[in-house]
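Hey, sorry to bother you again with one of my protein questions. A protein chain has come my way and I'm curious about its shape. It would help a lot if you went through both lines with me. I owe you a coffee for this, so here goes:
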Amino acid sequence: MANVAMTQRDSIGDQLEQLHQRIARRAYDLFRGRDGWGDAFGDWFSAEQELVSKPAVELREKDGTLTISAALPGVEAKDITVDITPQDVVIQAASEHRHTEDKGQVHRCEFTAGQVFRSLSFPKTVDATKAKAEYQNGMLNITVPIAPEARAKRVDIRAA
């Protein structure tokens, strides 16, 4: 079982914006490749599918802890990054697949290479400082305790 490095962040907005910009640039390239004719929405979806894969996940709550399991087959632990905030988590990884001629002629291949990107919002605020991530047999497991609820408190006023 390999540990996966986790980074605490204030916001995941910057990562989502960077990904959005990469997809937009690729969609525009596809659009221009047809001299501006065709389906702009289709270009966006094609660019998104070409650049990013979205792993299957399960988010579970038990005994004051949230657990995320994400399927990342064929990825090495060193290629996975997890960024976490009290409200969200972002999972990123680089997946590679290459064909070498010494293994024979490829007639069909459904393996993909590229960036794996998945963002999830937690249903409850978590204590991101206590999050842990482990990777084994193609499964990433992230555990994080639910943060204690902030409660309103009456403050006594002292006369000066």
